[in-house]
Amino acid sequence: MKQKNYQGLFLSMLFIVLSYFFTRDYYSPFFWILLCLLLVLLFLREENRLFAWLMISFFGGHLIVIYLDKFIEGMIVAPFFRVMINQILFIVPILSMCYVIIQFNKRISCFLKKPEPFSISKSLYIVFLLLTIGLIFLFILTEDMNVFLYLISFSLIHAVVQEVTWRGILLTQMINITSKKTAVLLTSIAFSVNTTIFGFAPIIFLLYLTLGLAYGFLTTKYNSILPAIVVHTVVLLFSFLNGWIQLPI
């Protein structure tokens, strides 16, 4: 029987705490915890030390994104393209986490591949059908083709970046230090906490928690982030369709 990794469980929960402090701009306790984490790195087992460095690279990458985003705000760029550039910038924390994992000679992700089993279930066919219907309705309700293309491109880029980060990299590494079910739950909580950057609301938190659990379930069930990317894109498109989310276009 695999011995329970209490250090890994503690680090996973610490990641949630740091995510909350970071997104709510509580930088004083955030940096104090990071400093303490740096001091105990040598006392951690290798897989736990990897995850600790992964957390540091995750937040370090996001700090870079924040400063780059402020720099872009000073440029004369159309609001929508500014939003798109912001999404693309999130490749920075992805690359920083990949660099850390490579330095430890570990596998970056278990889920960056085609879905398994290769015969897609009926549920995924329904998802693809919903996506098609959503695209048709979106096209009908948006008279401007440019607006339609903007919504599609934003939804796809956002879904890919988020799923590679949360279900591709973080879920894989958290599974290595906890267990599959625990990792799905804790990454989903961290994913939903991450939305508090827009202001904390219990209903929004629960909504993103539910979505995070669904994305994590799909990822672990099919050993691929592709189903989660598809569902994430569908959710965004229907949110735009119903006016729950709006883009500056």
Quick take:
With 249 residues, the protein is mostly helical. The chain has helices at 6-23, 27-39, 46-73, 79-89, 91-103, 122-141, 145-177, 180-193, 202-222, 226-241.
Describe this structure in words.
It is a single chain. By secondary structure, the protein is mainly alpha-helical. The protein is built from ten helices and no strands. Helix 1 packs parallel to helix 3, helix 1 runs parallel beside helix 8 (180-193) and helix 7 (145-177) packs across helix 10.
Note the beta-strand portion. Answer: under 5%
Low-confidence stretches: none
Order of helices and strands: HHHHHHHHHH
Can you count the helices? 10
Rg (C-alpha, Å): 19 Å
How many β-strand stretches?
Answer: 0
Shape: globular
- Give the terminus-to-terminus CA distance: 55 Å
Structural class: mainly alpha
The largest sheet is:
none
Mean pLDDT: 85
Query: What's the helical proportion of residues?
Result: over 70%
Question: What keyword list fits this structure?
Answer:
mainly alpha, 10 helices, about 250 residues
List the helices and strands and how they pair.
Elements: H1 6-23, H2 27-39, H3 46-73, H4 79-89, H5 91-103, H6 122-141, H7 145-177, H8 180-193, H9 202-222, H10 226-241
